[in-house]
Amino acid sequence: MTDQRYLKRTIVKEVVSSQHLPEGSRELRVYLPPGYNELLSYPVVYCQDGEDFFNFGRIATLANQLILDEGVEPFLIVGVDVDKQKRTAEYSPDGELYDGYVAFFAEELIPFIEDKYPARREPSHRILAGDSLGGTVSLHIALAYPELFHQVISFSGAYYPESRSIASQEIDLKRLTLYMIVGLQETDYQTDRGIYNFVEINREMKQVLEERGARIHYGEHEGRHVWGFWQKYIPEALHTFLRSE
C-alpha cells in the first residue's frame, strides 16, 4: 500500500495569459514539494501533457517519495495542459500551432513561473519532460532556446523524420543532456502519422544527438507505448537531473 505521506500533495492550479497561443491562455498545475518555503529556491521540472503526468504518471506522488525517503533535493513540477485534439499541431515540428506553442513555453510560461515561484533560473535547474510527441517538443524547445534549457527527459520520443532533420542541422550540442527510454514492444506503434518503429527512431535520434556531443542516458526496456511503462521510469529520470542532499 502507498505510504500516506506520499499522497499529501500540494498542487496549485494556474492560468498563464499568452499572446502566442490562439486561445490566449493555458492552464497549468504546479506541484509544491513537502516543506515548501518561498524563501528557498527550487529546480523545476516542466512537463508536457501536464494532466497526464499528474494523473497517469503519478509524478507528484513519486516526487514526494523521492524527496521524503530518498534524499532528493526538493523541486517544483509544472504540468502544462494540452487539448488532445490540438496536441499534434502544437507538439510536432511541422504542426501549424507548433511555433506559437514553443514561443509561449519559453517566452511566457517560464517568466510567469519564475516571477511567481522561487524557481531557479539557471539552465542546469530547468528540466523539460515529455512522452511521445511531448518528448519531441521538449527536445525542440531545448534546441530553440539553448540559453534556457540543457536537460530533457524523453519517454518514447516520437522522433519523426522532420524532427531528426532539425536535430541534424545542429553543430554543437555538448550543452545538452537527455534521459531517453523506449519500450521494446514499440516496434509497430500506430500514430496519427502512420505506423512507426519507436525503437528504431529513438536509436536514430540518439545517434544524431551523440554525434553532436550531447550526453545521453539511454535505455531500451520491456514495455509498450503507455503510461504504465513510462511511470516506472519517472524516478530514475528525475534522479538523473536532481541531486541528492
From TrEMBL:
- InterPro entries named among the record's database cross-references: AB_hydrolase_fold, Esterase-like, Mycobacterial_A85_antigen
A Pfam family annotated for this chain is Esterase
Q: What is the designated name of this protein?
A: Esterase family protein
Organism, scientific name: Paenibacillus sepulcri
